[in-house]
Structure to design on (606 residues):
């Protein structure tokens, strides 16, 4: 998976991932009206609106970016209908040649992690029928429970050529409350970074990068720099650009000298770009496309 | 929520929560056959089998236990159909008077956490229509991202009288890899325990316990004892009894002197009790009921 991602980043000359984190107030009125007319102001209506919106965004950016990152929470909040829209979004984006990073941040003990892992990046066995359910190419997971909670995902990464991005240093303001605590002379996020690096050793692809990557927030630049050094062959999934406040300059440190090693997420800044006064709602997809081109230029200016 | 849980524990004289973590090999053949005949060996068929199985278990134990804990991973692995079975299980258990602890272990940055929180323990707003989607009474969450990732859940606990159990010390073998690291002279799980205690201060109910509880594994007895001391008014959700190896003696330390303060989970030990040679598959519900009575006796012997 990591080799495909690296190839797509190089081919499109763009280390941008578009975060598909829709909210109803990001969705243009004409789309919502159509969805609510069919299904009412219900979870089903909202899910349909998300799916229509996502398809418009995907169509507008799929030739420009290597990957999309749907945030499952936005869909999960609407129950089964929402999960259906999440899965249909993934299907649609894959058809358009995009790599899927499912932002699910799961973390549970081994026997339970197996169920998450099989559902999302493996196959579920139903009395010897093998079913692919979510079909993400890679997912984010939480390391707080330790290696036995991560192993079931690593097994599926091996068996099905999938990838992981494990939370190391998140982009939110309070991330330091636990992640920055000093353990044996260094911050916890560094310790976790070393563990992730070790866990990924067996899964290094032809690109020189491991299928096991890390989530490293762009909002904490000096910490990202330390992690880059500790984890030279782990790809970073970098949230925090744009709406969360980080600039291209801040996140330059997330990249290696080869110009690779990081993929930068933007959600609101792209999918809600049409909120800028120069666009109308009907131009939501065009605005997203222009925002991607702008972001690509911005990132390239520091690389 | 915590006051209702405590009242139910006292009324039923039983601090047991039944973990509804079905797997296909726990479900009796006659149930699977019926479900697969209707829907095939598909995610829908498997989800239907889980729901039928859960209803049987719930009917058999609802007068004996205060709460059930469905593990969302088992359902989520089957996609939208699975999520539907999870929600229907919750609905059914609530009708039978049970408190629901949704074992979802979510953890994400604030704006995303809001979506999880509104979907699971609040209401989602769809253009001013307020919808209740999952309707758990309480859920488990992961603290690795810090307070701003927890706050959206605390807000809904206040607004909708819901509860949380935050992961502090989990029951799995590798839980110590991160949770036991020493930070500023004490283990990380103790630091997290102190944070959870602080976060819960505002939400202490008439029972003297906070709506914000903690997950503390029974498999680490001396650590649970330390946490009991640090967190006198936080309820413990205690996994690890039975199949994971902890005995009633091991988990005695999770309780306060008032005999309250902990609710002990058993999943396999109850829902798959019929696998014991003395039962047939048709007796799966009866076997679960007897396992609950056995467990209640066992717990009472140490309290």
């Amino acid at each position: 998976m990591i080799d495909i991602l690296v190839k797509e980043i190089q081919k499109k000359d763009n280390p941008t991932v578009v975060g598909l984190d829709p909210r109803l107030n990001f969705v243009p009125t004409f789309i919502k009206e159509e969805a609510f007319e069919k299904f009412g102001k219900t979870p089903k209506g909202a899910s349909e609106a998300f799916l229509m919106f996502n398809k418009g965004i995907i169509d507008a950016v799929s030739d420009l970016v290597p990957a999309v990152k749907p945030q499952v929470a936005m869909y999960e909040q609407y129950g089964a209908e929402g999960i259906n829209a999440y899965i249909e979004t993934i299907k649609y984006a894959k058809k358009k040649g995009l790599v899927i990073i499912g932002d699910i941040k799961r973390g549970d003990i081994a026997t339970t992690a197996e169920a998450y892992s099989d559902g999302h990046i493996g196959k579920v066995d139903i009395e010897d029928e093998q079913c692919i359910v979510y079909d993400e190419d890679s997912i984010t997971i939480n390391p707080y429970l330790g290696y036995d909670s991560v192993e079931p995902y690593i097994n599926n990464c091996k068996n099905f050529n999938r990838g992981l991005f494990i939370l190391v240093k998140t982009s939110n303001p309070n991330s330091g409350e636990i992640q920055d605590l000093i353990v044996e002379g260094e911050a916890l996020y560094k310790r976790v970074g070393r563990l992730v690096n070790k866990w990924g050793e067996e899964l290094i692809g032809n690109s020189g990068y491991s299928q096991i990557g890390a989530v490293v927030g762009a909002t904490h630049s000096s910490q990202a720099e330390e992690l880059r050094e500790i984890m030279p062959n782990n790809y970073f999934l970098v949230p925090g650009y744009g709406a969360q406040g980080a600039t291209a300059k801040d996140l330059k440190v997330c990249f290696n000298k080869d110009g690779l090693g990081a993929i930068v997420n933007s959600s609101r800044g792209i999918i809600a770009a049409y909120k800028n006064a120069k666009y109308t709602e009907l131009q939501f997809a065009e605005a997203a496309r222009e925002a991607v081109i702008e972001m690509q230029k911005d990132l390239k200016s520091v690389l």
Q: What stands out?
A: Chain A has 13 helices and twelve strands. Chain A has one domain: 2-300. Chain A touches chain B through 72 residues (CB under 8 Å). The domain at 2-300 of chain A is CATH 3.20.20.70 (TIM Barrel).
